[in-house]
Amino acid sequence: MKTLLSLQEFISQQKNIILFVGCGIFAIQALVFISSFGINFTQYGDGWLIPKSADMITNEYIWNNLLNEIDSHISVFPKLLILISYFIDNLNFVHLMYIGWAILAISLVYHFKIIQSIDKRLTWIILPVAAFVFSPLQHFALVSAYVGLQWELTMLGIVVSVYYLNKKPYNKKSFLFAIFSSLVASYTLISGIISWAIGVISISKNIKKMIAWSSIAAAVIFSYTLFAKSIESTSNFSNLTSIDGLTYFLTFISIPFRLKFPELNLLAGIGSTILLICLISYFLKNKKQISNVQPYIQFTVAGFLISIMHLIGRFGDVETKAWLFGHSTYYAVIANLPQIALMALLSILVLKFWPSRKKLATVLLLIIILQVIFISPGYYLGWQWGDEYFQKNSEKYSCFSQSPKNVFLCNEIFDSKSQIIHNANYLLEYNLSIFTNNEFNSDYIFTASEINKQWNDNVNSQKGVGYIETVNDISVSNN
Prior knowledge:
It is a single chain. The protein is mainly alpha-helical. The protein has 2 domains: 2-393, no CATH class; 401-478, no CATH class. It is built from 21 helices and 2 strands. A two-stranded antiparallel sheet has the order 1-2. Helix 5 (93-118) runs antiparallel to helix 6 (126-133). The protein starts with a helix and ends with a strand. It comes from marine metagenome. This is Glycosyltransferase RgtA/B/C/D-like domain-containing protein. The chain crosses the membrane at residues 17-39, 93-110, 122-142, 148-165, 177-198, 210-228, 240-259, 265-284, 296-316, 328-351, 363-383. Keywords: Membrane, Transmembrane, Transmembrane helix.
């Protein structure tokens, strides 16, 4: 008994160190993930960064297109980060991924601040929260510079805005920080506009703040109607009343999990949604506690509304099953919020009921443990997908080195992927991205026997006499 008490005392004394080390483990694995699988080249969603004209300078191109929409998004803040990278870092995409990691780390700090402001006994849940925030399941957000920054900045904007709107004592400085954070979210992804809607929950009783908040929100929405012309053409409100639409919504809530069968993910989404509705209803009836749990009500509403936005604007008329389409892994960055809210609300009730209603508290604790178990497969699959992603793309980008890894793949790219060739030529001409690395070619040097084997195995290759006219669509006569 004395040993147990001394162990509890030790854990209590070293709590902050344990929390820091535990969160650090999750953060470091995400950093290693980026270091292992990040590729310094344009990925899906990054193609717009390369001007169509080879004579146009990238920084001027990005600056001129700062307010232009991309897939209905006005992504001002990610573009500014990329612009800075162009000036000081030769457009190094891997370094931009590290910035994305730093954004996740900052968001975790604000999650901790929110938890601490409610009840210091709850701070232990920052460990599973860190597991959500740094999950490799969101692998594409981690290893895609532009797309990753979009989702990470939007999530950070929502979390920071919620923190400052609920900070006590409440002051003008906090209100201004909340406004700025919501602007960052809004002008990163269209989903970030939701931050204005959930902000109303915090300031609805303050008329002056409501007027200021609503006015800025209206201005943001108006700016989207001016600059994001494709919103109307991509919207499909009929999805809201379809079975596939409901399936999409419920599965979106469970994206942070990756269970063996899609039906299990759907069940997890149904269970999470029902629990969240029941928990929020309970706290709304117990008005004494409502101010404490308000941030997690806002995270839940944000997750629900963003899921509906995607359902209207992204689901469209695709024939793919809703559960599959809803599993784009970078969505997990936002879909984490309702799951974190569920964990926090359950934890608050565990603390409340443990002294008097231990059976109920135990059931609630088991649900939290189940959440943690459901996160685990995502870690294994995330690293597996990250490795597959790296192997596939490193072969593709070796085609632009002196020693391509896969001649057949390179032939396919050079025959049909004109955009990739244009991007590579542009980056090479301006000494950007992967072409600033002096080790790029040495990383792909093969032995002579390997090169000869690939050449001889290529049935499309022909031996003959001739001369080289172009290399990567660039005429050799110009050199």
